Please model this.
Amino acid sequence: MNILVTGGAGYIGTHTCVELLNHGHDVVIVDNFVNSEKESIKRVEEITNKKIKFYEIDILNEKALDLVFKSNKIDAVIHFAGLKAVGESVEFPLKYYNNNITGSIVLFETMKKHNVKNIVFSSSATVYGMNNISPLTEDMPLSTTNPYGTTKMFIERILTDLYNSDNEWSIAILRYFNPIGAHPSGKIGENPKGIPNNLMPFITQVAVGKREKLSVFGNDYNTHDGTGVRDYIHVVDLAKGHLKALEYTMNTNKVEIVNLGTGKGYSVLDIIKAFEEGNNLSIPYEISERRPGDIATCFANTLKAKKILHWETKNTLLDMCKDSWRWQSNNPNGY
Ligand code: NAD
Ligand code: UDP
Model:
């Protein structure tokens, strides 16, 4: 199949392109490189020994997007393009609503115009908000604490309404938990611009000497060691989940929401320990204040993914720590 991957130059997009290409699919990437580098696409080509067609365009650009669909016979879309920094979304909500929601609407309109009605969409566990108790199931009530999360919740709703208006659409909405790790080649990985917001890239930047120490945001949560517990998933497992979701959309006409996680929760201190032991390194850290908006515990119920996508994770926490470090140590300054 010929798959259009929006945001395909980014962290999860590149790993998914590797899996798509390795499974015999063709890939067309659309990305404006607002949070990525062209080099990442070259690396995917190196890993897979295949050529990728890419368009440097903004999904908000209706005309340019239309031309992509006119020039390529697209079978399905995997939609990663979006801004994802929670703090920035609080500061610039309109930028987030415009880029993520309007951009998605332009994409869906263009798909409809060209009669491409299969889509896999990147949502997030952030839509479960502060009030649900883990393990989180897909039918729990949603709430959000920041504009980024609200964009995901709205796009989920827009896709569901779109399906309800025309059930020729086939839609998989994937709620990711915490993707970390990197391709085992060490050629592609997470490459945050500026100071990392997320735990693992911060740890790897401390390990490589770019940051002095990690701040652990709070040790007074109601968890086994007081630090926040999350469901960390290897990005390659996550990428493989997209192939399964794509297959699912090709064989059904439904809208389904599915968690992609491991179902296991690890604390910040568990992650530091695993990273230190797995890589024989020491990570200096200090305990600091809680980060506003953080919850104590968040991990997935993974039954639906097993049942309908026939997918589950394979990589261990140790694999995630080793692969994250291989990527960072091979590429201390990113791409
Ligand atoms: P990323 O920033 O690495 O990748 C997103 C890509 O989209 C980037 O290459 C960026 O340049 C591109 N992009 C953004 N706006 C665009 C626009 N208007 N037009 C064209 N391209 C645009 O992020 P990622 O970690 O790979 O995340 C991919 C998707 O998964 C995002 O939608 C994100 O919100 C979602 N998600 C990520 C996480 C995570 O922790 N990484 C968790 C849950 C959900
Ligand atoms: N965290 C931390 N220090 C950091 C970044 C994150 O202690 O520099 C903690 C954070 O409070 C949370 C966990 O690590 O408990 C995962 O945070 P991340 O931002 O990676 O994911 P999210 O909170 O969005 O699930």
